């Protein structure tokens, strides 16, 4: 069923023979284990060895760590496993997706707004150098979603944009860059995110395009990548009802399934119509769009039977392994489908040449590897991209710019945030709100900048009754406009809004009685909003006259923003999609 001599594997007779002989020599438990991609709860040799011995895993995608920690982990995995491992990183935005001290280059939207395809290549190239240095050979990137719905909280700054041709060009360039380091890219999220306004981490979130619409967008995109040799794809927990009905006209609405569990989408459409011969891995299996579809004991074998080859992350290793084994023994996972999956998994390993080298040579020497992380020339590319990408989205009050200490000596910096989210707290760097960085940088430039302290921050540690009284007093008491205009020449609102762990990507207004958290005062004092995450905040503050999207809060990015505000350099970014609703609205 699987042609290992064809694209993307292109194996010679020796590679094919290794795959066949390896499968023939595997136990039933080893075959089932190859289907799993483990996350891992720790990096100790004892833990890693136990997982390999008990569950025979085929791949890992690990928790973040320093380059030295990840290199040592991957050395243990490759040397102690019976078969060479696929070791994946999440290099969506740079080598920092492989190790915490790797180079952050830029999210997809930042690259897209440069309109320079060479930067997508650089993103892939730098990601590949640093990921390969710590022993990775697989990457869950590029993100090839087409951003057509600004309310979508998942794609947002992760996508190259909403123009199909731009996304195709940049995805191809990323693939070319990362493959130079011998890393297999896995494009995501099949069959295409960016259409529904929900997050498939948290909810059912289909792609609602018709078959014709899908063919002209995601279909054309995936076909181009497949024809270019794309070796792997991540199946999102995203339904595509139009094509599921196309292949199964008798289905009912209750039969709609995410692609990760849907034969019509991942076998009939992807394998059949588009001719994809490579590896399909599910997206993370704890996401609600998958877990809400059926019992976990059922979805494990169902994902492989539907056409996926690998299952991303154990929930409970003993439980999941047992349920996958029981699914195969009961026939819910067929012998043919298991055999196909094994051929593709091992075919990908052979394509990467993992079977040809001694296990202790699958990683570069440690000191040589660590020397490739965070190279000055890699960081210089990130700085260049920031200069090209930062976008002056809206400028309806042009006389405000350029800024100078003489014109605006007293600056109030106001933080804008997302709703509280445990997941966002988990992945937060702990560096504080970017508004604090902006205050410091403005003061270094000679301004007298101060940070606004919200009511919620003021009442921290107070009793519930004290909090209620303070908020009541805010409504009852005076709040003269002169309190703002007499003390501040300029307001700079710094927004850090992202959809992590939330069903929406919208700003969180914690104030009462129109406090300064929200920019209601744009006609009272010059006001600038700088977004360091989501580019789509104008929907909730269309009154803002000057809006800049910077895409992140890296120091070099914020320095570039301030240089541009002061007229030391030009704003060069251009929107890569309809990412900026209400950008041209005069209110």
UniProtKB/TrEMBL annotation:
**What reactions does this protein catalyze?**
Hydrolysis of terminal non-reducing N-acetyl-D-hexosamine residues in N-acetyl-beta-D-hexosaminides
Family (UniProt): Belongs to the glycosyl hydrolase 3 family.
Q: Keyword set for this entry? A: Glycosidase, Hydrolase
Among InterPro entries, the record links this protein to: GH, Glyco_hydro_3_C_sf, Glyco_hydro_3_N, Glyco_hydro_3_N_sf, NagZ_Beta-hexosaminidase
Q: What is the native source organism of this protein?
A: Arachnia propionica
List each copy of the Glycoside hydrolase family 3 N-terminal domain by range. 29-347
GO biological process terms on file = carbohydrate metabolic process; peptidoglycan turnover
Q: What class of enzyme is it?
A: hydrolase
What is this organism's lineage?
Bacteria, Bacillati, Actinomycetota, Actinomycetes, Propionibacteriales
Write down what this protein is called: beta-N-acetylhexosaminidase
SUPFAM superfamilies, per database record: (Trans)glycosidases (SSF51445)
Name the Enzyme Commission number(s) assigned to this protein: 3.2.1.52
Output the superkingdom of the source species: Bacteria
One molecular function GO term is: beta-N-acetylhexosaminidase activity
